[in-house]
């Protein structure tokens, strides 16, 4: 990432946060925090990372409402006097939920209490004790 795009990322994060907090009047948006913005080098697209507090259904509803508000937010960004205002794409930032889950599991393990069965979560890292099966070769039988 170049220094220019890093500056644009931070500027957009601050401005989008202010616009969502002050000017988006949709009650479905709920309590959201803009955690980051990643702009493509050509400034045509920007991924807006959003952290949402609440139950799963409310988070989905907030994301839909926020995605619908992105064209309005983009229009308000016109005051920044950038050569090009990027197309905004809202994505949920679930790092806080994942971090809380890991801390809870570590706390339960430390206390010796059994970890309750939870529905499977799509993990990005392999779980301890799991190993991928080696790929089979055509000649092995």
Write a structural description:
This protein has 141 residues and is α+β, with helices and mostly antiparallel strands. The chain contains 3 helices and 3 strands. It has a domain at 3-97: GMP Synthetase, Chain A, domain 3 (2-Layer Sandwich). It has helices at 3-22, 56-76, 95-111, and strands at 32-39, 45-52, 87-92. Strands 1-2-3 form a 3-stranded mixed beta sheet.
SSE inventory with pairings:
Blueprint: H1 3-22, E1 32-39, E2 45-52, H2 56-76, E3 87-92, H3 95-111
Parallel strand pairs: 2-3
Antiparallel strand pairs: 1-2
Features:
alpha+beta, GMP Synthetase, Chain A, domain 3, single chain, disordered C terminus, 141 residues, elongated, three-stranded mixed β-sheet
CATH topology name of the domain at 3-97, in short, is GMP Synthetase, Chain A, domain 3
CATH superfamily label of the domain at 3-97: K homology (KH) domain
Reading side by side through the largest sheet, how are the strands ordered? 1-2-3
- Outline, from the CA principal axes? elongated
CATH architect. name of the domain at 3-97: 2-Layer Sandwich
Determine Rg (CA atoms, Å).
20 Å
- Which consecutive residue ranges, at least 5 long each, have pLDDT under 50? 130-141
């Amino acid at each position: 990432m170049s220094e220019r795009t890093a500056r644009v990322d931070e500027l957009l994060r601050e401005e989008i946060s202010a616009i969502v907090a002050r000017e988006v009047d949709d009650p479905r948006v709920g309590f959201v925090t803009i955690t980051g913005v990643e702009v493509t080098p050509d400034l045509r697209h920007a991924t807006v990372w959003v952290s949402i507090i609440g139950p799963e259904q409310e988070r989905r509803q907030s994301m839909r409402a926020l995605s619908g508000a992105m064209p309005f937010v983009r229009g308000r960004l016109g005051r920044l006097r950038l050569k090009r205002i990027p197309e905004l794409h809202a994505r949920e930032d679930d790092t806080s939920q994942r971090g809380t889950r890991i801390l809870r599991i570590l706390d339960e393990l430390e206390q010796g209490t059994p970890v309750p069965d939870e529905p499977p979560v799509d993990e990005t890292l392999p779980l301890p004790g799991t190993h991928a099966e080696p790929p089979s070769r055509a000649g092995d039988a």
